[in-house]
RNA sequence: GGGCCCGUAGCUUAGCUAGGUGGAGCGUUCGGCUGAUAACCGAAAGGUCCUGAGUUCGAAUCUCAGCGGGCCCA
């Protein structure tokens, strides 16, 4: 039996109950099982990093995923949806280091790598569990019990196998490259792991002495003096104009300087030169090849053996001096200039950020400390033109915030550059939402694709499965555990992490011994293989053959160059095709003012905080409805509260008929739709038609992944159609006491609309939907599916669609609104009936609407009669007013204009109107003469009869006739009385079917007389068995109150009748 | 500095693809309703459609330049 429900929408209570219910019934599993064998839908969860806590962004991410998966499931898809966790990498290492009080790699080595990774693993697993709980409170259904974890063997094998493919396809490379390097963590870090922040650094101008010219120098600028010992060359732009300048200092001494012509003025001012003279200008191409002396050649002996020259490079910009210091060991562009011109890659800096013994004088010095020393040395040699400090954006390690440096080191690479064209072809086949995410943003990114450095010099990661012979340097890449065991004879259940795999050696064909290279994978490589790792490939191949590639993935826009890219790269290497078919790129959650949420600013809003206040369904509805998925979401508490209010209204709508249904023991199993069909009123057919339209709207939105449109369509239906209209229309029908078919029709229609609405909100607000379903469906039919999420998505029932009716109802609603407006103008409240409403339509739809829905219009406007006039005709009770138009009269009648004006003003307006219908007429003036006037000379306006007000609406005008009659006054006052008594019943907290005694004293004889006309009506409406109304009545009772009704004082007392 | 996206009422937004008098919700004020009632309805006030230029008879919409915000890159 359908039960009554609580007064208020109590989200937390509902959600807790629903979670317990899902748990107890294993609902998630049942739903996935139920769709086995249906059309496959392979979803790959972008693995969040196991930080231990979710934030609004990750919550939004999972909410989108969950909504789409639930929708797909209800639409009969067999869903594969293992949740994923990204568990390796530097962030966890740094956390564990912090917990153990470590400061450098030495501490880890001393503690023991085995112990260290054990801690990392424990830490990651614990954080994963915490986060799983948090995601579950959102109602997100993924396979939480069998998630993929990057630290698992099955996952590690997927990474290994992929690298082996790269090796076999000759896409794996090793060699010196310049990488972002964190001197504290002593490892290469990914571009994505570099965080840019403002930092103060030296800004120095230096001159390098030219070799073959006395007293002549080329001028460069840098913010990293510590890279000067590594300087190998100077780059100039081939097409810029450079100048040879004779510069004079304040003492009048001169020297020759070379720099870009347009920058001369600036540089010399900064260098405090007194005067200058441009000797000659030349192109950058001309000065290429100039040789210069390394400024610190005497302090860094190796530099003395290297030849230093000027080279051309296109990336040089016309800033500072236009001549760029090149240290191929310390910059990506520098490295490229070096490689292109066959220069030595000189990198005298070690992994911990201190100079190696190649650095001569600077050996052992930390590079940051060396800045000062280098500048002093340059100053002493007279080569430092200027020294200042600037604040600029500089890269920092995202974990430990140490300023990064660029180092040329030995690393492993995937030759992604070679796959660029194929990648660009592949992404065209992918369906992107929004379109530009793929066609513009991702495409641009891929066009700049470079080789991918996949190696890291750390501990907690997937070990790179490359074994190298110490004798012949041959390498072998191992693809699976099986292969490893086979080749090395290692234990079959060996732990695949460091340090255990490090100890494994294997024989080389040359007779030497192969040892694993020490590096681990970049964590981006971990998640890159997710789409096949989640299918346990290569461990088992069946699932892969059945499911891969992914039907759908969705992540934030930062993942364009992150996971969307890394997956594509890895997949191109492994399979030569894109690993996904549909991608939805979603936005970021920002704070209320559009700023990034960050701990340091303190503007972070926790999902748990929102859930505690409003519940998960409200959070879900909010993030889904508030903006297009790909747009950033400015978090706003007021908006959340508004959405919550919408949900509360849905709850109220749903709750409204339940007491009546319960009282009447309404059983939807007994009262079929067919049995009431003949008794449906227009509004019933209308709400059923609207319901179908909503299903169609949601379908269309979901097809295009426009979740905001889906959610908004539902909200609008609930608010506008159900709550503000349908429920208002049918309220009196639910109060009928007899078991008449008109009431049963309402019950049945409400029932169907509620059940359908529950299904339509199920993907978005799964808890509330479940709550409604359990009561409405499961309580009456124990054979119904156990949970709403097992149900099929509702299909549009074309037989119920009536677009004409929808248009008519829309017109009626606007007429009702306009009549409210008119009532307000004429000062007549809705409680008082009006004798009639006159509708002057401008279109057929309005006419049809009034004809079809006249009773709805009468009801809702509280009018005794609706008068409909013909299209285009004006209401014949309107008066006409005529006013002379001086602008037209003056020029024609000149001096007589005043008389003409007066004549027009004094004439009967109707007569004028008729006379001027033909364009002109003759009128008499006061002096007895006649003149001819034209229609332009008179302005006509319509006037309203007494106590009538009008208001326009889209399909015409309504006139509200508020003239009083005795009957209307009687009814008006009676309803005032009824209202007061109902209010008092409420105050006494009486049940709807309790009877009362009521005593009413009215201090105005006239009004008393009016009210007495409706005595019986009043008694019936307020359920009074005893009703005494008079001038002098004893008004004592359980509750007695004095009222002022339109200036008349009344005293009312009521008591419950036992 | 570059790429992509966003900028419309105090707040959240629709309209922009396809140029033709800018719509809604929240909030505010006033009024109304009343057995969904701590709910609900109507009206009013509130707009340099980020700025500037251009195209056009006509620009929130198209183009260009700038400003502010986001993501990414340098």
TrEMBL record:
ATP binds at residue 599. The keyword Protease does not apply. InterPro entries: aa-tRNA-synth_I_CS, aa-tRNA-synth_Ia, Anticodon_Ile_ABEc, Ile-tRNA-ligase, Ile-tRNA-ligase_type2, M/V/L/I-tRNA-synth_anticd-bd, Rossmann-like_a/b/a_fold, tRNAsynth_Ia_anticodon-bd. It catalyses: tRNA(Ile) + L-isoleucine + ATP = L-isoleucyl-tRNA(Ile) + AMP + diphosphate. The gene is ileS. It is found in: Cytoplasm. Gene3D superfamilies: 3.30.720.200, HUPs (3.40.50.620), Isoleucyl-tRNA Synthetase, Domain 1 (1.10.730.10), Valyl/Leucyl/Isoleucyl-tRNA synthetase, editing domain (3.90.740.10). One of its GO terms (molecular function) is zinc ion binding. The keyword Transmembrane helix does not apply. The lineage of its organism: Archaea, Methanobacteriati, Methanobacteriota, Stenosarchaea group, Methanomicrobia. Its cofactor is Zn(2+). Residues 684-835 form the Methionyl/Valyl/Leucyl/Isoleucyl-tRNA synthetase anticodon-binding domain. It is an enzyme of class 6 (ligase). Its EC number is 6.1.1.5. Monomer. IleRS has two distinct active sites: one for aminoacylation and one for editing. The misactivated valine is translocated from the active site to the editing site, which sterically excludes the correctly activated isoleucine. The single editing site contains two valyl binding pockets, one specific for each substrate (Val-AMP or Val-tRNA(Ile)). GO terms for biological process: isoleucyl-tRNA aminoacylation. Keywords: Aminoacyl-tRNA synthetase, ATP-binding, Cytoplasm, Ligase, Metal-binding, Nucleotide-binding, Protein biosynthesis, Zinc. It comes from the Archaea. This is Isoleucine--tRNA ligase. A motif ('HIGH' region) lies at residues 48-58. One of its GO terms (cellular component) is cytoplasm. A motif ('KMSKS' region) lies at residues 596-600. Belongs to the class-I aminoacyl-tRNA synthetase family. IleS type 2 subfamily. Catalyzes the attachment of isoleucine to tRNA(Ile). As IleRS can inadvertently accommodate and process structurally similar amino acids such as valine, to avoid such errors it has two additional distinct tRNA(Ile)-dependent editing activities. One activity is designated as 'pretransfer' editing and involves the hydrolysis of activated Val-AMP. The other activity is designated 'posttransfer' editing and involves deacylation of mischarged Val-tRNA(Ile). Its main location: cytoplasm.
